Amino acid sequence: MGAPAERARVKLALDHHYSTAIAEELRARRHDAVAAIERGWEAEADESLLTLCAEELRALVTNNVADFTILARRWAVEGRQHSGLIFTSDSSMPRSRKAIGRYVDLLDRLANANPGDGDFIDRVHWLG
Q1: Could you give all domains of the chain from N- to C-terminal order, each with its CATH number?
Q2: pTM to 2 decimals?
Q3: SS3 call for 111
């Protein structure tokens, strides 16, 4: 009998506001995480980025609360699904090099608590 299969966990995408070091460290912890900059998504319009994330079943970590809240509401009215939004605030979660470890720890816990690709469908979560 082999080792137990590892649970799938929610997949993450980090908007261009965040250090790629966060995605790198999450991958080191065996999470499926990408940074927009690594994928060439940094110039994508908000709706295009949300669409790319939905196509890959990735929850998007973003600081752009105002724009993505409007998009999520519009998509709900239109019957479209997104793969989740994880919001951060500069007041509680500053985007600085010193905060990288905190982001990694919180996202690690969140991903471990959500075992499936679809666990964040249409969900909004505040990190921190």
Answers
A1: 11-126 (3.40.50)
A2: 0.91
A3: helix
Angle (CA) 94-95-100 rounded to 5° is 105
Residue 6 CB partners (closer than 8 Å, separation 6+): 30
Helix H or strand E segment including 52: helix 46-55
Buried b (16+ CB within 10 A) or exposed e, 98-110: ebbeebbebbbeb
Dihedrals phi, psi of 117, to nearest 5 degrees: -55, -35
Q: Which two tokens mark 18?
A: 């965040």
78-113 confidence digits (pLDDT tens): 999 999 999 999 998 888 899 999 999 999 999 999
